[in-house]
Amino acid sequence: MGGKEQNRYAEILLSCIEEKYFKDEIALEHHSFARIISGEMKVVQADRSYLFGPGDTMLFPCNQLSTLIKNPKNGLPYKAIVIFFRPERLKDFYSRNPPQFTQVDNYQIKTYKKHPLLESFFASLIPYFDLESELPEKIISVKIEEAITILSALDPNIDNVLADFSQAEKINLVDFMERNYMFNMNMERFGRMTGRSLTTFKRDFKKAFNNTPQKWLIQKRLELAHHQLSNEGRKPIEVYLETGFENLSHFSFAFKKYFGYPPTSQKKEADQ
Q1: What is the pLDDT of residues 8-56, one digit of tens each?
Q2: Dihedrals φ, ψ of 208, to 5°?
Q3: Are 104 and 160 in contact (CB under 8 A)?
Q4: Tens digits of per-residue pLDDT, 202-211?
């Protein structure tokens, strides 16, 4: 697996994956606005999944756990333009453009149909990635403000997300873990996502589940994989990434150790 990012300006970048696939599990610190140029990206979240291809445009709200699986397709590498909206940029924008709040937003990924404003905006960014020097700060500022302005014009509910500057608080641990156990993060990251230090996270987890996080996570991921193999007829190679395992051999070993038989036998039973 491999990937690279060209012209790594802190806030505007080109992501390029040239090998077979690239998997990453993220909880973005900042809202990100993206356009797929070529290739394909599957996004798996706790309650749904998405598949994006060339020309698709989306906004990822910050602090939402997601598994990203990026693949070249049709002989072309995976390429995407990504823009990060830092809080200081957003606060400056909304200090001059008061937000228009509507109904409560569900903070899911937002997708946008093709529109002349979007097409011209992303087309204007592509030449910047041929620069050998860094993009001037003033241009970065102008282009990010343009992006926010376009989203405001296309999405009447966007201010509910971009203008929400509330800080993360300690959240319900059981609810969070039951929805996000398939994401392969370390314990420190799970703690931060639930508003806890590592020590507090482990203590609260033991109290809630009467188990260690590591043992509980492996068990839940294996049970999810078992369900997908036996009830949905999927193949081991199709489920191991989505259920939090880094490679197929580790998944197969853990599955056989836990259930007493290899995951391939589940696929055979489902076919009968």
Answers
A1: 446 999 988 877 778 787 777 789 999 999 999 999 887 788 999 999 9
A2: -80, -40
A3: yes
A4: 999 999 999 9
**DSSP label of 105:** P
Domain hosting residue 118, numbered range: 4-162
Which one, of 141, 165, 176, 60, lies nearest residue 108 by Cα?
60
Can you tell me the distance from the alpha carbon of 97 to that of 114, in angstroms, rounded to the nearest whole number?
25
Tokens of 179: 């929805």
Cross-sheet strand order for the sheet of 12-17: 4-6, 12-17, 78-85, 31-38, 57-60, 110-112
pTM of the model: 0.69
Same domain assignment for residues 123 and 194: no
pLDDT, tens digit, 9 for 90 and up, residues 140-158: 999 999 999 999 999 999 9
**Mean pLDDT of the 63-84 span:** 91
Among the three residues 113, 137, 162, which one is the final residue of a domain in this structure?
Answer: 162
Task: Give the pair of three-digit tokens for residue 128.
Answer: 């910047």
Q: Are 18 and 121 members of one domain? A: yes
Q: Are residues 155 and 180 in the same domain?
A: no
Which is higher by pLDDT, 103 or 219? 219
Assign 137 to helix, strand or coil. helix
Other CB atoms within a 10 A radius of the CB of residue 271 amount to 7
